[in-house]
């Protein structure tokens, strides 16, 4: 017998197809061991005494492997809800995206924007850095998560070195932990600096293979799907087809199950089957990428 989340049950009981389709687009967190271990580790960083060389990490995974979802879930689980009447809300975890180019001024601006601090993005790096130094302790930030760090490769070697030195310096001066997230090229990026390589221990996210943990993952996914009948996604034949179609990517699996659920709702089938999956106009990520590159 499948187990549904309370919210999913309420959505099904509402009797509204529109509500169920909207529910599929809501953000959800599907726990699994590698991600849970990383979150447990990052949580311990919050209690470490401040010093110049804090604990840092590099979270690496393929595109659409759940890095951003993990970071946002960790931030939301730790930070309190924003009080609109308060001058500021103490937020131990700060999440921001790396700028598209390895530029320290843009990085400072991204950090300030994530805190909601008014500033002139065109201000000098020194002015923006002073604002960062003033506001990080004001907001009680202990960890900064910087996503898409592989963007640093968009610059010259000189720019990359300066940018990585900025990140290293920021951690030292502010006495906070910094967690970088990116695809495999992110690991390549920090390898140009031996000190960065020593201080940012990598934590990989897995590419999924068929097995017990993957079947448990499917059980968790099914608990969020607002379908009237059980699909039994973890059944071996269906599970193997899902891993083949998603290329072992948790992000692709999530998208695939959403599309299959929409079809199941609209067709009144109300469950995901092998036959339904094969009728989807689904193109795996690797093939989508090849098609896109062929057009460039």
Descriptive keywords:
five-stranded parallel beta sheet; about 300 residues; alpha/beta; 14 helices; Rossmann fold
Describe the SSE topology:
Layout lengths: L5 H8 L3 H8 L8 H13 L10 E5 L6 H12 L14 E5 L6 H12 L9 H14 L4 E5 L9 H18 L2 E6 L1 H7 L3 H6 E5 L7 H11 L13 H11 L3 H17 L7 H6 L5 H11 L1
Parallel strand pairs: 1-4, 1-5, 2-3, 3-4
Helix pairs in contact: 2-12, 5-6, 11-12
Q: How does this model look, in words?
A:
With 296 residues, the protein is an alpha/beta fold. It folds into 2 domains: 6-26 and 224-288, no CATH class; 33-204, Rossmann fold (3-Layer(aba) Sandwich), CATH 3.40.50.300. It has helices at 6-13, 17-24, 33-45, 67-78, 104-115, 125-138, 157-174, 184-190, 194-199, 212-222, 236-246, 250-266, 274-279, 285-295; strands at residues 56-60, 93-97, 143-147, 177-182, 200-204. The relative contact order is 0.15. The model has no long low-confidence stretch (mean pLDDT 91).
Summarize the structure.
With 296 residues, the protein is an alpha/beta fold. The chain contains 14 helices and five strands.
Which structural class should the secondary elements be placed in? alpha/beta
The average pLDDT value, as a whole number, equals: 91
- Helical residue percent band: 40-55%
Name the shape in a single word. Answer: globular
Termini, distance in Å?
Answer: 48 Å
Total helices: the number is 14
Low-pLDDT sequence parts: none
Strand content: 5-15%
CATH superfamily of the largest domain: P-loop containing nucleotide triphosphate hydrolases
How many individual β-strands? 5
Order of helices and strands: HHHEHEHHEHEHHEHHHHH
Total number of distinct structural domains: 2
Radius of gyration: 21 Å
Quick one: CATH class of the largest domain?
Answer: Alpha Beta
Do you know the CATH architecture of the largest domain? 3-Layer(aba) Sandwich
CATH topology of the largest domain: Rossmann fold
Largest sheet: 5 strands, parallel
> What is the spatial order of strands in the main beta sheet?
2-3-4-1-5
């Amino acid at each position: 017998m499948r187990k549904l989340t309370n919210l999913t049950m309420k959505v099904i009981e509402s009797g509204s197809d529109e509500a169920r389709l909207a529910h599929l687009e809501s953000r959800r967190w599907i726990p699994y061991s590698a991600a849970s271990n990383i979150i447990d580790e990052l949580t311990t960083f919050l209690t470490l005494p401040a010093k110049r060389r804090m604990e840092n990490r590099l979270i690496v995974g393929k595109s659409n492997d759940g890095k951003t979802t993990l970071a946002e879930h960790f931030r939301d689980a730790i930070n309190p809800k924003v009080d609109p009447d308060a001058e500021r809300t103490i937020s131990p975890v700060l999440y921001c995206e790396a700028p598209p180019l390895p530029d320290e001024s843009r990085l400072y601006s991204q950090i300030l924007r994530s805190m909601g601090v008014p500033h002139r993005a065109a201000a000098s790096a020194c002015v923006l850095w002073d604002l960062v130094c003033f506001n990080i302790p004001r907001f009680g930030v202990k960890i900064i998560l910087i996503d898409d760090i592989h963007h640093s490769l968009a610059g010259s070697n000189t720019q990359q070195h300066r940018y990585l030195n900025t990140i290293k310096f920021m951690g030292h001066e502010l006495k906070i932990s910094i967690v970088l997230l990116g695809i495999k090229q992110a690991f390549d990026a920090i390898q140009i600096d031996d000190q960065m390589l020593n201080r940012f221990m990598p934590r990989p996210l897995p590419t999924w293979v068929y097995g017990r943990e993957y079947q448990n993952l499917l059980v968790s996914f099914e608990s969020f799907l607002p379908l009237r009948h059980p699909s039994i996604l973890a059944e071996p034949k269906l599970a193997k087809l899902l891993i083949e179609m998603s290329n072992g990517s948790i992000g692709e699996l999530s998208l695939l199950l959403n599309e299959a659920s929409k079809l199941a709702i609209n067709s009144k089938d109300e469950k995901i089957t092998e036959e339904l999956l094969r009728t989807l106009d689904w193109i795996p990520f690797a093939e989508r990428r090849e098609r896109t590159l062929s057009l460039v």
